[in-house]
């Protein structure tokens, strides 16, 4: 990727994140449906609804920047989804539940890094309103990570006790 400016780098990052959030909408629905653990399934379902709001916010950000909302393929997210699909075909039950929680955590870490980076770039390029919007989503992603982490820890404790 050759980029001539911080503004271009910022827009390309937004396009990748817009792609990622759209891919994650479907993936979170799948995780919620195939996870038997109630707390984890609920966390995935709630985060799917929240992710739709993130997509809407990114569209607003593009509008604020005078850019058409466009996606740019993000290989990290594609790899996480492909890896999950392969694992889910070969596993089920508690093993799949725990795997899904791990995938949820990996995804949240990716989103936290992406939103953190773009928030910083928005500030650097003088888009303070956009930075505020991205920072709001960043906080929500951090909360989602905390939820799926708590669900994972609770699941692990139940497995040890059971």
Automatic annotation (TrEMBL):
<feature type="region of interest" description="Disordered">
    <location>
        <begin position="142"/>
        <end position="162"/>
    </location>
</feature>
<dbReference type="Pfam" id="PF05974">
    <property type="entry name" value="DUF892"/>
</dbReference>
<dbReference type="InterPro" id="IPR009078">
    <property type="entry name" value="Ferritin-like_SF"/>
</dbReference>
<dbReference type="InterPro" id="IPR010287">
    <property type="entry name" value="DUF892_YciF-like"/>
</dbReference>
<dbReference type="InterPro" id="IPR012347">
    <property type="entry name" value="Ferritin-like"/>
</dbReference>
<dbReference type="InterPro" id="IPR047114">
    <property type="entry name" value="YciF"/>
</dbReference>
<protein>
    <submittedName>
        <fullName>Ferritin-like domain-containing protein</fullName>
    </submittedName>
</protein>
